[in-house]
Design a protein that fits this description.
9 helices; alpha+beta; DAGKc domain-containing protein; Tumour Suppressor Smad4; binds adenosine-5'-triphosphate; ten-stranded antiparallel β-sheet
């Protein structure tokens, strides 16, 4: 291995995985290779500053993150301007980025990938100043995420259980104005997605042609809630009906809605918004992949 100082960033509260096991497995594997192991446990407060300081003072040359998408994005924000490869041990409740990068599910296999030589230079989307590595959206899915975050049942089951009351209370469809350079268009949609990847963390393949490293993202205009079409995305089918979803590739956009609409980035509920400015950052994020 061509690195000497590895930092493992662990979120102790993400998902339901055993973090002690992750820490001891990483530590043991690095000891076997005579590589120095450094640990940072997130607290939810000033983590970015503390991680950056640790990287600088310990001359870190590989970072591994064990957490959910929120923790991955936090570390990405810190290292995006540094020449570091990020290894991912998916340990969240939905793990959308890991699902998109086809990362293995077994810890020892995840670790070999995280310490390996293969990588992808991921595009980094920026929405209203917040980074996004796979999918953000306005509308019904963000409402689902908000209600899921407030519910007591975790995992995909919790997401499913609270979907019925959410759908019944929602005021969808929503009216959006999409502005791309000089072009403006109106869209009525249940959900307006901004995708740098193919799938949601649930596995739904909503953007089959999207590539996470092509400098382009896709605006997904979901026009209706159609069970058959939703099942198609979950079965990884690639011929999505244009009456169900219209896909607009671009590298920047401005979205306006008159009434505030629920907004989420990579699975984290942000709030209700009327304006979203989306651009591609000039930096890339180097992530270790199988
Ligand atoms: N020690 C801590 N105590 C409480 N909250 C924390 C702590 N460390 C990090 N957090 C919070 O955890 C959240 C990020 O969680 P993360 O997204 O990684 O996990 P998840 O929600 O279980 O996974 P996923 O996004 O994949 O569903 C952030 O809001 C962050 O502030």
């Amino acid at each position: 291995m061509n690195f000497k100082e590895v930092l493992l960033v662990v979120n102790p509260v993400s998902g339901q995985t055993n973090k002690t096991k992750i820490i001891s497995t990483v530590q043991k594997r690095l000891e076997d290779e005579n590589i120095n192991f450094h640990l940072f446990t997130t607290s939810g407060k000033n983590d970015k500053e503390k991680i950056l300081s640790k990287i600088k003072t310990k001359n870190i040359d590989r970072v591994i993150v064990a957490g959910g998408d929120g923790t991955i994005n936090l570390v990405a924000e810190v290292i995006k301007k540094l020449e570091l490869t990020l290894g991912i041990i998916a340990a969240g409740s939905a793990n959308g980025l890991a699902e998109n990068l086809n990362l293995p599910e077994i810890l020892t296999e995840q670790l070999e990938v995280a310490l390996g030589v293969n990588y992808i230079d991921l595009d980094i989307l920026c929405l209203n100043g917040i980074i996004c590595l796979h999918i953000s959206d306005l509308g019904i899915n963000a409402e689902l995420i908000k209600n899921y975050e407030n519910s007591s049942i975790r995992g995909k089951l919790g997401y499913l259980i609270q979907s019925i009351p959410t759908l019944m209370q929602s005021e969808y469809p929503f009216n959006f104005q999409i502005e791309i350079q000089e072009t403006r268009m109106e869209a009525k949609a249940v959900l307006l997605g901004f995708a740098n990847a193919n799938k949601y963390g649930t596995g739904a393949n909503v953007n089959p042609q999207g590539k996470p490293n092509d400098g382009v993202f896709e605006i997904l205009v979901f026009k209706k809630l159609d069970l058959i079409d939703i099942l198609k995305t979950l079965r990884n089918e690639t011929d999505l009906d244009s009456d169900f979803v219209e896909i607009i590739p671009t590298s920047e956009a401005k979205i306006t809605c008159i009434k505030p609409v629920s907004f989420q980035i990579d699975g984290e509920y942000i709030g209700k918004e009327t304006h979203i400015e989306i651009k591609m950052l000039p930096e890339k994020l180097r992530v270790a992949i199988p």
